Amino acid sequence: MSGVLLLAQAAPAQDLLMFDASTFGNAVLSRNQSALAGAELEAQIGDYNNEFISNYGATSVFARTGRPVGRLDILTDKGHAPCTAFLVDGNRLVTNHHCVPGILDNDRLGASAIIAVQIRLGYVRDGIEDGTRMFHVNPIPLETNKDLDYSVLQVVGGDANAEFGALDLSAALPGDRDPLWVIGHPMGEAQRISREKCQTDSPAVASGRLRHTCDTLPGNSGSPVIDADLKQVVALHHAGSRAGAVNFAVPMADILATSNLLKASVQTDVVRDDIEAERARLAAEKAALADEKARILAEAEAERQRLAAEAEAARAAAARATAEQADSAAARATVARESRANTALLAALGVADSTARSAALQQVIQDHPATMAAQAAQLALTQLDSPAPAPRATKPEPASRGSDNRFAALLNTPVPSPDTAPELSPEEAEAALAFSREEYRDIQHTLDALGYGLGEPDGLFGPASRSAVRAFQKENLIEESGYLSASLLDRIADEYNGAPATLDGTYRIFIRRRWDDAYHRRKPDPAYRPGKIETIGSVAIRVENGRTDVLGFQDLARVESDAYKDLRVSLSPDGRLKLRSTINFLFGKPRPKVLDLNEQLAKRWTTGRAITFEDGEWDESFHINIRVMRQE
Question: Which keywords does this chain's UniProt record carry (predicted)?
Fold first, then answer.
């Protein structure tokens, strides 16, 4: 089969690719002509973070720095192998010794002769040859060193420096964790740059090699390792670690100390001093801006809290007034009902015929249930149906008239006018409604379905039921008495009846942190304020026919991490939310924690309603605070 890609395993050098010889001279190397599926990409560090340099404008610092970097195409008697090389002054280029001439020492590739060498410059858009230039290269090095793995080759047949320039070389040794760029042609593709998570390791230099975490692949051999501040070459990439933790490059300081051809830029020390001074100045400005921002935000937050407190007080006052009006109306209605029942009772008692009187009393019981008059009518029926007592021989003693006295007292009790009825307490207002145990159980079922969990409904309105009522009152800005009234029952029924019959729809889960008041009183923080809650991320989901799909997530922690990459979330038809994910709960620096939620929410849920709950701590200074909103 033509076009088989081979990967050399000769450590420590970066693996080389081998394409079919027919691809030599082409700008585009088709992946159909390779066996990429079998390649071992030994130099990838974690996620592959190389990106095409064409993602940036032609005048960007990345594109301008990459102009002198090209793909070095090596034609051998066994095929075509691509490496990377970069131009230096004198129309020369630098690459790895294991590319030229060392490819002949690679037993895996088995080449015995280098037939031709070319450098392809300007190949920045994958699959597009327009704008590229090819220059021939003398395959016999002007200078080479196997131990330092570098070769200097001469470009022939044109002045490549005139069009593409040259990179400056630096003898400076980067420090630990210094930012770097690696520009090259991995896999023979268009030019790529590795800059995300691209930096020196700690230690930066060990055993004569610069250690870095920049992603590279076969084809990156000969790539320049560029100091991101100096914009100068500080090392020559040459090897990838099979452990996948770090890659290796030869420090340019060692190459410059050995080479008779390559020269360092004379501006290195001056530029680095200027950069350090500029860094210090920018850091001071950044700190000053951060202080000013914190001051402005603190003032704005104080004003927001003041306005919110005023608005909350106004809403609470309005809610109390509404509740008081409703309860007063309920009390007047109760008095009016009792008055009508008493009138009907007096009329029934005035009927002379006992049969007709019995029927009239039964009608009172039927028309006016759960009233004092109905109880009196039932007592009168009992007395009416009882047989008369037999006469006694002795003088009768006065019989106890307790029942008659109770009945007479009931009839003689004046009925207060609705206009003069006293204001009832919350307890009295609920008592006036005279709920049965079954009615209480129905109310408990409704509150439980709406997510105000109180346990198993049993018709006994105890502390858990009162707590559920208070939770409903709090969410609806009603005075938190814990007692029922006619108006409150209407509100509960409206919310239940207004909710969709199923939980199908879209939801947003806000993942938040609440500052622990006790902790921050012990350890003051200028950003702390009582009750402070911050959103650190959110997840959007859609629920349909019992299936939960994640629509997207937003990470507000402003730090690169693995947050949300292991996200698992579901909302069952009965309202149980399960969410598990790694979350970074600090702003600006990594602090991951696995969040594992399993919370029973609501079975009936109106659109626009949000349910808030807390589930443990992020750490001793922050509580886990979750807010779930139904959006449609």
Answer: Coiled coil
